[in-house]
Amino acid sequence: MRKFSRQLVGYTLLGAAIIGILFSAWGLITVWRMRTPIAANLTETLDLLDSTLQASEDGLIIADESLGQTSGAVGALDDTFQATGRTLNDSTELVNTMIGFFGQELPDTITATQTSLISAQASARVIDTTLRAMSNIPILPLPQYNPPVPLQDSLQQVSESLDPLQGTFESLESTLRSSRGNLILIEAEFDIITRQVQAINASLTNSRAVVQDYQSVVADLQARVDFAQEGLPRWIKNLTWITTFLLIWLAITQVGLFVQGLEMLGVFNDLD
Suppose 159 and one of 28, 113, 117, 245 were both cysteines; which one would form an S-S bond, judging by CB atoms 3.0 to 4.6 Å apart? Predict the structure, then answer.
C-alpha cells in the first residue's frame, strides 16, 4: 500500500514536471514568435493614437484662432456700440439743451423784446408827436416830418412780427421732445445690445480658455505617446527576455520536480 502511494505520488510529480516543461517550451516559442506581431500592433496603435492627437491639436489650433478672430471682431463691435451709445447720450444732452433754448430761453427773450417794444412805442409816439409839431412851426427851418410809417407803427409791426415765432418755438420744442424720447429709446436699446455683446465676448473668452486647456492636455498626451513610441522596442525586448528567463527558470524547477518523481518511483534505486 505504501509502495502504491509512493508510485502514485511519483507519477503525479512526473506528470506535473512534464506539463510544466511543455508549458515552458510552449511559452518560449509563443513569446518569441508573438514578439514581432505584438510590437507591430502596439506600434500601429500608438501611431494611430499619435495621428488622432495631431488631428485634435490641429482642430484645437483652428478653433483657438477662430475664437480669437471672433473675439476680436466682437470686441470691435462692442467698442462701436459703446461709442455709438456715448454719441447718443451726447445727442440727448444736446437735444435737452435745445429744448431749454427753444422752449424757455428764446420765448422769454421774445417776450422781453416785445415788452421793450411796447415801452418803446410809447416813447416813439411822443417822439413822433414832438417831431411833427416841431416841423409845423413856421419859424423853425425844419423839413416837414411826415414819415410813410411812423416810428411807433414800425415798432408795433416789429413786435407783431415776433408773435409767430412763439408758435414756431413751441413746434420746435415739441419736435425736439419727441426726438429726445426716440433718442432715449434708441440709447436704451444700444445699451441692451452692448451688454449682450459683452456677454458674448466673455463667453468667447471662456471658450478660448477651455480650448487652450484642451491644447495643454493634448500636448501632454502627445509627449506621452512619443515617449511610448520611442521606448516601445526596448520595452518589448526587455519584457521578452524577462519572460524567457522566467520560463527557463520554471523549466529548470520542473526538472528538479521530474527527478524527485523518479526518486519516488525508485528508478535510481534500480540503477544502484
Answer: 117
